[in-house]
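Quarterly update from the structural biology core.
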Amino acid sequence: MPDTPQRLPAFTYWPTFPFEGDLRVKRLLDPVPVEPPRHGDNPAECRACGAPDEAYIWVSDRWRVRSLDRPTGLPAVLILESRSHLDLGDLPNMLAAELGVMTVRLERAIRSLDGVARVHVNRWGDGAAHLHLWFLARPYGRLQLQGTFLALWDDILPPIPEEQWRENLALVAAWLAEFGGRPLAEPPRINWTAPAKLSEEARANDESSTFGDPGTTVEVPEPATKTGNSAAMVREPAHGNGEDLSAEPAEGNGEEPGAKPALSTPQPVAEADRERGA
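Predicted structure, tokenized:
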């Protein structure tokens, strides 16, 4: 390459290009005579083969889907892997056909998330020998993230909230499970405790509740008792007949008294190579 400054390529002027300011083109290095081995060229050392199913958000007999180990700037970044230690060109006809089905299915699952406009599907394969396809969700309305540089923007944008990230993973896993396989990602645990500030304000409002003429304070009844996850109004026995009216569940949640919500902690996910060349 000549030492004289080169004119910057046209893509540096695209509105989607993430950088601005003074840029210069790197010097192109001479080609190496022998390329270094990729991770997993020796199947005995392949991290994907050695990872347990619990490190994935969804698994089947022949395919597995994993996420990164933490939220990033995009609504979802997922990786589809074959369970067998094969590269793209090594797939037999049956798995090659299934790869097309799985690609479409996973794209639809990610695109079903709120706020997702498009899903970019990428395969590089320079860093690892085990087949893996990247699926990157572009947020709706973020036109600056369109096209080639979405993977770069993912590292630039601030991470999305972890609860939203875990919920997205659980929704994708459940969507895939409708067609088979086993979902392993679960939604975040719900915090049932009201904030202390909110509780104090509600109590103050109750104590100062007035009706009718100013200065007339009405006694506030005791709050409804809780049974499991459903509020039940406890009625006093009817005067005169001793009849005890059974508790009725509060309207609006459709749950039986005593029902408990399914709470669980998301499964850990495998460490992913953050370099897009993997």
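The radius of gyration is 28 Å.
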